[in-house]
């Protein structure tokens, strides 16, 4: 187990990077605390896998250094760093049994006998592989093979960190629930530093204590799931976290009033005229309500999508499209409606960045 | 056109991959095939396309038997999970390729390529090569190539599975509109219940090679006609518990008694299984009919706005979805609430006996 520091690192894949655009990962200074559960979350191309590979030692950063418990390991291999890794697609030995596959990382570290056996069986039990321990891996489904990969990553508890690169992508939704909660249980039991890369917000938010949201080679926000949901510090975070993402509306802001399409909206905090070319009001669909008849800001209802446990009303306030979350029992009839905001959850953004405001 | 599968069975050696499936798909309809890995989704698509021949049963197009007619002689387009494009062709040429093969005249070809590209929002990328595009743009190129043929049958095998979550969300919103404009029979295979719900249309649930139910997507979700369908169409998985009806009330293990309200009213005495989705297992009493149930916390997953509380109750594992942040320690006792008005009742044979009233109204 280790605390991991990325000290002023940056990475470019090409030689002699000149401008910022040449860097896949722009300058980043970040600490992963010992025993923390972290997720690196962002769209493809945001730099999250690059960051993971710098931590594991598969890549050496163009600039800066990687420290494990304060020791510079920048030039060390993954093996020297004592990292366990699980990748998106299964890495298993087809000709070995499930048991031998799981035992392999332990044998490599000269763990044998009763210790090896109990550890293998414990992990197999956790992943529901006990009944197939003596089967050859070749005969198993993609799901089962990925479970073995996961097991191989988890079987050693003496590693400095466990890294996961989109480990559940090929897993069916039903099994995902099971594996995710088992991974979380294991984290609570062994307390390893775990870093989990994903583009799937549900996986990131449910797994991690701390989520690192990345976009275009940068870290845009580091926070608990609650912080990212309640207070996105960039409109990108608002959009990327939440399903559907945050509504962002062009606004004029002065004091405690935002004006959107000519309608004044009361704000929970006070703002000097924020500077920036683009001033916007951000509000999540969860914090917009359909008002009782004749009340609220007038909107046109374009469509209502029934997605099971709730409905998404797609509405327009003048020219601006908004999503409103409504309960599964609510019936929306008619082409127009009124909407109200949960004022405590309104945020103001200038050129995409959250503006603090005064209480 | 209409496509009819009549008592289709597909066996490979001793294994049955598709078991006695009958389905009729109407012109212009959007149909989701929902099922887990190995449920038979891809096999069924291949049988619809004519890429495989059924062991038993018939495939009919507009009432005409086309069983055994190869894919080349049918009007079919297919898109796979792994997007396939010609890397040395531009986006324009990729989309144009099926029309060139068919010998479509150049003026007509140009118009159709631009139309398909427009539908897939690829207008600005026509001169690019696939590898210069994002994953989403590459998959939209593959989709555009499929629709440019104007085939009567458009088959999509988990087309969004390899894309980013957010992109998937956006395409799921756009695709139904596109499919409606194309007017073909669209069949969309996926393992994700949320895909089906966002796409709408009709859903056929697949389990172990059988179609367990086919109907309007929301209706199947709200009124699954058996446990297998409820299982396939719930994410997180549906919670189940065995119960016994006697004296007009439901007895649960652990001594809990549910009053005969809603779906539980008027059931004959006997053994049943109760099912309820995660959002209908509550941390706070949702109404006067709610009944408390004692459980033990297994683990809590927090999404920032909601908490998935995994619990054990009398040997069953359940998931409750609650609004807000609920930090509960593993092993701690917790009191949950069941609302008899929100419960599905299944018989010993797994068939639905009664569903919540909202289902009937929907």
Describe the protein in words:
The complex is a heterodimer of chains A (359) and B (362). Chain A is α+β, with helices and mostly antiparallel strands and 359 residues long. Chain A folds into two domains: 4-240, P-loop containing nucleotide triphosphate hydrolases (Rossmann fold), CATH 3.40.50.300; 247-354, Nucleic acid-binding proteins (OB fold (Dihydrolipoamide Acetyltransferase, E2P)), CATH 2.40.50.140. Chain A is built from nine helices and 21 strands. Chain A has helices at 48-56, 78-81, 98-108, 113-127, 142-154, 173-190, 201-207, 225-230, 235-240, and strands spanning 4-11, 25-32, 37-41, 63-68, 71-72, 83-86, 161-165, 194-198, 210-215, 218-223, 247-250, 252-260, 263-271, 279-283, 288-290, 297-306, 310-317, 320-327, 336-341, 347-350, 353-354. Chain A has a six-stranded mixed sheet, with helices on both faces. In chain A, strands 15-19-16-17-18 form a five-stranded antiparallel sheet, with no helix packed on it. In chain A, strand 17 (310-317) and strand 18 form a beta hairpin. Chain A is globular. With 362 residues, chain B is an alpha+beta fold. Chain B has two domains: 3-232, Rossmann fold (3-Layer(aba) Sandwich); 239-361, Beta Barrel (OB fold (Dihydrolipoamide Acetyltransferase, E2P)), CATH 2.40.50.140. Chain B is built from nine helices and 21 strands. Chain B has helices at residues 41-49, 91-101, 106-119, 135-148, 165-182, 193-199, 217-222, 227-232, 357-361; strands at residues 3-12, 15-25, 30-34, 56-61, 64-65, 76-79, 153-157, 185-190, 202-207, 210-216, 239-246, 249-251, 257-258, 270-276, 281-282, 291-302, 306-313, 316-323, 333-338, 344-346, 352-354. In chain B, the strands form four sheets. In chain B, strands 6-7-8-3-9-10 form a six-stranded mixed sheet, with helices on both faces. Chain B is globular. The relative contact order of chain B is 0.12. The model of chain B has no long low-confidence stretch (mean pLDDT 92). The interface between A and B is large, with 45 and 41 residues.
